[in-house]
Structures are given as structure tokens and as C-alpha cells.
Amino acid sequence: MKKIFILLICLTAMLSIGCSGERQINGRTSKLAFKSVRVMKEYLPKRQKLEFEIAFWTLKNGFEKNSDFLDVVDGMKSAELITAGKAKFSELQESGRPEYTKFADWDAMIKSYEEERFEQDMNQKKDSEKQKRDSTNNVLYDLH
User: Fold this and answer.
1) DSSP letters along 53-104, please?
2) Comparing C-alpha atoms, which of 113, 128, 139, 125 is closest to residue 53?
3) Which residues, other chains included, contact 122 with Cβ-Cβ below 8 Å and sequence gap of 6+?
4) What's the rounded Cα separation, in Å, for the pair 128 and 123?
5) In this predicted model, what pLDDT tens digit does every residue of 84-142 receive, in sequence order?
6) Taking a C-beta distance cutoff of 8 angstroms, is the pair 107, 44 a contact?
7) Is 1 helix (H, G, I), strand (E, B) or coil?
8) pLDDT band at residue 12 under the 50/70/90 scheme
9) Which of 38, 86, 102, 124 has its CA 20 to 30 A from that of 140?
10) Contact status, residue 76 vs residue 98, Cβ threshold 8 Å
11) What is the structure's pLDDT at 20?
12) Residue 13 belongs to some domain of the structure
């Protein structure tokens, strides 16, 4: 009984330590960074998900060395990452990078990608409806 009580206390302590605080990016390796970003993105509101993702990739594109990028994003929370992404966007835009100069500002880039995502989602829905319709009109039957 005493061992169960001690085990329960240890388990409670580990859970409270592991679940406390806001999620942060683990920048030790690229794999861990991508995994933590994916998990963080799940808990964000819909509008912020896209902005968070774009900020992450803007920061990634802004560094030549992967290690420099990982050092910068290590320990960042979602709001910090978005702020850093906006700053890096301005920096890349001023440096003349063509993929960033085509947008007037950060909000214009977000709006453009939102529209692109919406179109992709609509095309996916049309494709899935067509596949469903085609599968119901199939004359090949599985007799087994």
C-alpha cells in the first residue's frame, strides 16, 4: 500500500511538471522542432494556425544554416514565433528576396495564403465528391 502511495505521488508530480506552462518549440534537432511545431499548431485558433505556420517557414527561409535557425526558435512560444516571423519577413523584404517583395506587407501575405488554402480545400472537396460518385457508379462488383 505504501509503494502504491509513493508511486501515485511520483506520477502526479511528473504529470504536473510535464503539463505545466505553454507549449514551446524544442530546437535541439530539426525533427524535434517540426514535431513540436505540429503539436503547437493543433492547439491554435484557425486564423492563427496559418500565421504560425507561415512565420515558422519565413524564419526557416531566413537563415542559411539550419543550426542558426534552430538556436533562434528553441524555446519560442507561438506568439513569440509569429512576432519573430513578422520581423524576419520585413528583413527579407528589405533585402529584396522576390518571394517576399511581391507582398505589400505581412497581412497581405497571410491573406494571399489564406485564399490559396481555401482554393486548395475547395478542389479537394470537389475531387472527393467526384471519387465518391464514380465509386458508386462502378459496374465492377466484388463477389467475394
Assistant:
1) HHHHHHHHHH-SSHHHHHHHHTT--HHHHHHHHHHHHHHHHHTT-HHHHTSS
2) 113
3) none
4) 9
5) 999 999 999 999 999 999 999 999 999 999 999 888 888 877 766 666 666 666 555 55
6) no
7) coil
8) low
9) 124
10) no
11) 43
12) no
Overall domain count for the chain: 1
Give the tens place of pLDDT for each residue, 41-71.
Answer: 999 998 799 999 999 999 999 999 999 999 9
Give the residue numbers spanning the domain of 113: 22-117
User: Do residues 53 and 45 lie in contact, with contact meaning Cβ atoms separated by under 8 Å?
Assistant: no
Model pTM score: 0.71
Within a domain: 74: yes
Instruction: Quickly count: other Cβ atoms within 10 Å of residue 110's Cβ.
Output: 18
| All three cell numbers of 83 | 512576432
Residue 30 falls within a domain, yes or no? yes
Residue 139 lies inside a defined structural domain of this protein: no
pLDDT tens digits along 14-27: 555 455 456 899 99
